[in-house]
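MODEL INPUT / OUTPUT PAIR
PAIR INDEX: 1
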Amino acid sequence: MIPEPDLPEYPTPLATRLRDLAAEAPDAPAVSDGDAAFTHDQLDRHTNRLARTLADRGVTRGDLVAIALPNTVHHVAASVAAWKLGAVPLPLSARLPDAERDAVLAVARPAVVIDRAPEPESADDSPVPPVIGPSWKAPTSGGSTGTPKVIVAGQAACTEHVLARADGLRIDRDGTFLATAPLHHNAPYMFSLMALLQGHHVVLMQRFDAARTLELVAEHRVTWLYLVPTMMSRILRTVPDAGWGHLDSLRTALHVGAPCPPEVKRGWLARLPRPEILVELYAGTESQASAMIDGRDWLAHPGSVGRVTRGHVRITDDDGHEVPPGVVGELWMRPEGAPTYRYLGAEPRARDGWESLGDLGSFDEEGYLYLADRRADMVVVGGANVYPAEVEAVLLAHAAVHDAVVVGVPDDDLGRVVHAVVQAEPGVQEALREHVAGRLSRHKQPRGYTFVDHALRDDAGKVRRAAVAAAVPDR
């Protein structure tokens, strides 16, 4: 059973919010994907019919509804239909291998799986009786191990809960939101639905295209753009300077999900109309706490992910003692009030009321947070800690490198050493070694390189380092 959260005194069901938006501007665009589109009125009526069709399949309040669809209007419609029944949408990758999908479904036990564009069978598009589900989303995560878990949000499916963070994320009323990443990832899924509930036109990219992204910003007068560092790097490499001249509609370009190489960040700040448009968010799907920083503040504190804006964060050594500013330790987080999530299929890493996602970092004297890496990704070379993100940032600073993933591999002498898997232009091997040698101390330099001609991360910038390490040839 999904726990029942406390509700505000007069909660507004999400369906009521969407119906009100449809009444305010029935013909305004609600969601589009390049091939299909719904106005607010069409989306409301369509999802009323779809909700009744799901109810006929036995879906009731509190059930999980798995949505394994590509980035189309039907993905958004399926979530809205689930909300209208008080069910909890569970987004899944449409391309999950059967074994991985079966493992997730065994944990989640959804009432139904929607894996093709659903056709409503009910002809009744009148409002569905209002109901508030116990949670508004339940994304999945395999973490770095690939073991599936479901992260059930601790917020009920009411407007007051879901939009409580919208202003802090700059998702205000009546803009245009561009979702560049797959909706089975929590951040683009969450932000897209928040934007929908704020009356935005949600524009979905069916697949990320670096050259097309800024064209869509200009074409749709996008106000809120979702990014991950991998996308930012690809756009910088693909779009000529002339292609950056029509971004005056942008109020926010937010990136999340992975450390952003400083050269990539500076490249964007140099091209955007104003540095404060670019915002970085640090948070996990669990959402116990978060930090944010805009571009202007980042230029004064380069490398930081900002000050803590929500919840509480402390940094400790391996014995649990809080470390002073400037010392790297493990981040432990705690929400300000009620629990922000619960796991299905996993238990949190917890200690004395604090929880850790395995991230390492430090505070400076002013309270700005700097991430080092994840504890599971750190490579201990002869007793010295090496953080892959630092090495990757140096590799990515070379003009011929498209992407790089750094992992640890066994070594008879040092225990483990650094190995780099690099996607780069041909013939760069020796120049890259010289580039690295001039910027990193010896123990941080890769002892080996594997050069590939394929992408190392998915469209959301995610990579499974364990799989990358397993594919490194024996040295």
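PAIR INDEX: 2
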Amino acid sequence: MSTLLRYSAFLIVSVLLFAGFGCTQKKLDDGKIPITTSSKEARELYLRARDLQDKFLIQESRRVLEQAVALDPDFALAYRDLAFAQPSAKGFFEKFNKARELVDKVSEGERLWILANEAGINGDPVKQEEYFRQLVEKYPKGERAYNALGVFFFGQQKYNKAIVEFRKATELAPDFSPPYNMLGYANRTLENYGEAEAAFQKYIKLNPVDPNPYDSYAELLLKMGRFEESIKTYNKALMVKPDFVPSHGGIAANLTYEGKYDEAREQLKKFYDIAKDDGQRRTALFITAMTYIDEGKYKEALAAIKEQHALAENINDTAAMAGDLGIMANILYEQGRYDDALERYRTSLRLIMDSELSSEIKANAKRFFLYNDARITMKKGDLKAAETKCEAHLEQTTEAENLNQIRLSHELTGMLALEQKNYAKALEEFQQGNQQNPYNLYRIALAFQGQKNDQKAEKYFKKAAEFHSLLNMNYAFARTKAEKMIGGK
């Protein structure tokens, strides 16, 4: 999974949900998903672009897909994949909405896939899973359908289920490489490092002249704390493709965890300078901000996010601007500037509510605002009001049947329990939260510390400190805090 995609908020929703395989001009007895287009040339371009996306050469695929939709303006799958290749959230929604408008003009497989993507974007995992299950039932020989279902389970943190689907995909098509990549990530998350390494090595063998397999393997080495080896492997990706910008982000992560902040930012300056569009420039700025947060330089982090926000403002990218304001608010929250943070959370919500985004996205935004409002309320000392907001958040996320948001709600209730010094309750809630969130692991450690259970507190402080993911906000906030607590520092 490329580093770059992990930093694009709207792509995190449905990463790897690429197009189907087959052709409407032949019978559907091969059990694969067809491709609906009136143009033979457009279809060939689409297949070329799909291959580029399989290799995470997203920017390169965009130009090819633009040619495909020019030849066939009703090419739904091409618009869908073109959406995922956009450098901005604004462009993403423009192209995806076009694919959605064409959903009744395509095969059942294409319709199910696009609707599954839509459900993911709208934060409706129940509906998304239903569509993907229908897809694999209707196309039992479609390796891409099983891979997509596996990616869905991966996103829901159901890693063992994901592995089952990825293996089905490899059994159907042993030379189809994306499932090996995801098998590597799933096993890495489960700390099955030997199996993860075997999957990534197979991925490299299938794609020896592509950069992403080396990038993925380098991320495993990063996770294992083998920083020098990881940097060398990221550089292998850059030897294959010097402008493969995700690997610059991976190198910066390694350097950050070695405490080499200036070198990390020099690497990110290279990233920024070779960026091909504002999407890549925003990514470089975001990762730069994370290096500053990790170093404890919040003022500089805010400046980088403001620069990122200016790029979105230039094209009136509402979704991106709202996201940037949320990031700024999170930084202000960590500084204890709660009123300033709340103001930006409110402005972010207002942007979404005044936009033309879907009602489902707006409902999700309201739930996220409630989460942040509750956090600030408890920090300002009104624990009774915070408790009411926590209960409302859990009720709303449960009703929405969004597992990831339900986990977030448990983390929120755990934060309140910490403030109340109810450490047993805090542990109960945090353990129902996201175990892939290092800040949650740090809070678990604080709860054990409150119970005077120093052994378990040490264990979780260490897990949080040595999480070694790519640079992201939760880890940036938690890593050095946890590191300082190890060994009773």
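PAIR 2 NOTE: Confidence is low (pLDDT under 50) at residues 1-29.
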